[in-house]
Amino acid sequence: MFDAVVVGAGPSGGMAARQLAAAGFRTAILDKKKVVGEPVQCAEGVSEFGLESNGLRPREEWIAQRVSGAKCVAPSGNWFYITRLPGYAIDRPAFDRWIVEGAVDDGADLRTSARVTGISRHDGGWRIEANGESMDARIVIGADGPASLIARQAGLVRRLEKIVAYEYRFRREDVPILDPDFFLLFVSQAYEGGYAWIFPKGEDVNVGAGGPIDGHAATVAFCRKFGIDIARRTQTIAGSIPYRYDLSALAMPGLAIVGDAGGITNPMNGAGIHPGLFSGRIAGECAVGALGNEDPNAMMAYDRILRASPFLDPLLSWMIDRVRTWSDGLMDSVTEELQGLDWRAVDARLSLRVALRKPWLALHARDFLRMIRTLELCDRYGW
Asked: Percentage of residues in the chain with pLDDT exceeding 70?
């Protein structure tokens, strides 16, 4: 019998396990991978605020490079700053292991190559089947990725709509178009609301594309467009990203679904590390309270907190649906007015000037106003 079993050893599962182990509860972490964090399925960017707001300080062992923010690049090549808040390109496997090791240091039992095949209610708690054996727990936290067996077997899933991201890693000298201090996000109608990216990472660069598209074909086409020789890639990375998830709840008595497993991923850009850290931390805190008070119903607070958080603001999903209808001409026209500026430069004077020169943009006024609010959310909580 464990007090808690965390299924999945990514950032969200690791954060939940940290809270539980530090509070002295007997905690098991189960992960199907042989080595925590590998293979990588991530573009490996996270904001400084995303780390510090969850009680984490950057460590040299998993920081590949500090970045100064991110830029949005239109099909025309014009660009504007999405955010100028600092962040990091990280070594994701080392990062995941560091988080989980923090829980292990406090007494958590880590079991790798542990494939969970089922969960069921048992004696007021849960019975977890893994590798042909069973274990019992008072609390279960599902951090088992976009396909989440835990969420499905708990009967919480209504719909899981995922997108595919595909990425190549190159040596820095093999990527001719590069801003060494900023993440670059390339938008186009071709990505149907997704985007392509170039993320500097120390001596390496991550180049990829994702969205409701053929991620592999889009990445190949992007590399060819910018003269990046695919034959010089050093690694290929692919993975699924939650896009439109509909769960009846993110928690039930004695159980919580965190990170990608609950679709707690920014639909505007697919970023999942920051929301994963937050959701795992909150689930762990709720679990500590539930165990301490011997009240499994206390886990329901997790659902309320997450749904009220900026990470699940309905505006994000509404906005990405609108962006999917934007033409390259519209993106180019808007970015032309913001060339080299921060999106925060949009004010009444700039808006009036643009309206006089391009009155047809007034047809999209509602979208633009909501995009400003979306950028405010993403500036701080979007990566």
From this structure: 100
